[in-house]
Design goal:
There is one protein chain. The chain has 378 residues and is α/β, with parallel strands linked by helices. The chain has two domains: 3-128, ATPase, nucleotide binding domain (Nucleotidyltransferase, domain 5, 2-Layer Sandwich); 178-365, Nucleotidyltransferase, domain 5, CATH 3.30.420.40. Helix content is 40%, strand content 18%. It has helices at 36-39, 43-57, 88-96, 105-118, 138-141, 147-151, 162-176, 228-237, 242-251, 254-259, 264-272, 276-299, 310-315, 317-324, 336-339, 365-373; strands at 3-9, 13-20, 26-34, 68-73, 84-85, 123-128, 185-190, 194-200, 203-207, 305-309, 346-348, 357-361. The strands form two sheets. Strands 3-2-1-4-6-5 form a six-stranded mixed β-sheet. A hairpin with a 3-residue loop joins strand 1 (3-9) and strand 2. Helix 2 packs across helix 4 and helix 7 (162-176) crosses helix 16 (365-373). The mean pLDDT is 95.
Length: 378
């Protein structure tokens, strides 16, 4: 057995999956540990407890028996366009990117260091959420601000959720019976965080998230697209501190800011009860997605499939129906009966008269990370 441990370390939670990659990637166990700062104190204590649990279950004798530990790292900047074996220099680069992902990269580093302390001999590999989008052309990733802001300060669109969009590309192409490198897709990762990607001939050519994960679609607590003049107005004319603005935009906006609820399931329940603010939030959320679909259609010569995924995209027939409403004239025709089916892996929800396929796919970032890391494991 060649056990490979997939880790997604956040500031308050740790998601893990254990694969046997001796013959393919067979999932042995998975789980999530939440409220880690309250219950354990730090990532090292969490992982110590987790390995004790895995040994007791018989799924892993000792962490030193791992073939590799594979970490999701949210921000890889411009340097990392593919996974990397973690050494001192790679870890230093991940640390240097903390200002660009202050909510994520510190926790990613903490997980790497914890694994190094627990099992110093095993190989560790970083898979970057920004890497898939590094194929975007300059006209997609550059902002219309002075050149020095890019060359000296590194301000550009990076895009996120790349591990998921990469998986969706491969899974959709396999379902449609076409090569991944030839697939033209619009992929939608819709959850607490949400992003869209335009994939042309297998490569990401545009994506909705930008310099940070704040740009783009409306999200659970994040605003998405916003006139930057609003930020200067808040700071200059209302005297708000930048920390207040950051909290407002990242934690108090989005669906939560519009209706007081960040979970789409709660919003849909409120809509059924006649809550007008919930209905408004739902409509705005879906309208923004349709807006991006229209823009991405212009970038692609053809669209083989529109792909819904993420916690909302995979599970909410109501969101999929609302997003596709009015897109019939552009070749996207949803079948109401198919759309109501549960999505365990992949379902086609387009009707027979649809020019492009419409798919709902349950994303699997852990499996994608395992597959990407295999080429670096000896």
């Amino acid at each position: 057995m060649k056990p490979v441990f997939i880790l997604n370390c956040g500031s308050t939670s740790v998601k893990y999956t254990l694969f046997d990659c001796e013959t393919g990637c067979r999932r042995l166990t998975e789980g999530v540990i939440e409220r880690i700062t309250e219950r354990f104190g730090n990532h090292h204590e969490v992982l110590q407890m987790l390995f004790t649990k895995l040994r007791a279950s018989g799924r892993l004798l000792h962490p030193e028996r791992l073939h590799a530990a594979v970490h999701r790292v949210v921000h890889g900047g411009e340097r990392f366009t593919e996974p990397a074996v973690i050494d001192r220099e790679v870890l230093a680069q991940i640390r240097r990117l903390i200002p660009l992902a202050p909510l994520h990269n510190p926790a990613n580093v903490a997980g790497i260091e914890a694994m190094r302390n627990i099992a110093p001999q095993i190989r560790q590999i970083a898979v970057f959420d920004t890497a898939f989008h590094q194929t975007m052309p300059p006209e997609a990733y550059r902002y219309a601000i002075p050149q020095r802001c890019y060359t000296s300060e590194g301000i550009r669109r990076f895009g996120f959720h790349g591990i998921s969009h990469h998986y969706l590309r491969d899974r959709a192409a396999a379902y449609l019976g076409i090569e991944s490198k030839k697939a033209n897709l619009i992929t939608l990762h819709l959850g607490g965080g949400a992003s869209a990607a335009a994939i042309k001939e297998g490569k990401s050519v545009d994506t909705s998230m930008g310099f940070t994960p704040l740009e783009g679609l409306v999200m659970g607590t994040r605003s998405g697209d916003l006139d930057p003049g609003i930020v200067t107005y808040w700071a200059r004319d209302l005297g708000m501190e930048y920390s207040e603005i950051d909290t407002l935009l990242n934690h108090e906006s989005g669906l939560a800011g519009l209706c007081g609820k960040s979970d789409m399931r709660d919003i849909l329940a409120a809509v059924k009860e006649g809550d007008s603010s919930a209905r408004f939030a739902f409509d705005l959320f879906c309208r923004r997605i349709r807006k991006y679909i229209g823009a991405y259609m212009v970038l692609l010569d053809r669209v083989d499939a529109l792909v819904f995924s993420g916690g909302i995209g995979s599970n909410s027939a109501e969101v999929r129906e609302a997003v596709c409403k009015g897109l019939e004239r552009f070749g996207f025709c949803i079948d109401a009966g198919r759309n109501r089916r549960a999505c365990d892996d992949v379902i086609q929800i387009s009707s027979e008269k649809s020019a492009s396929a419409i798919l709902a796919i349950r994303t699997d970032e852990a499996l994608q990370m395992a597959k990407e890391a295999m080429q670096y494991i000896t």
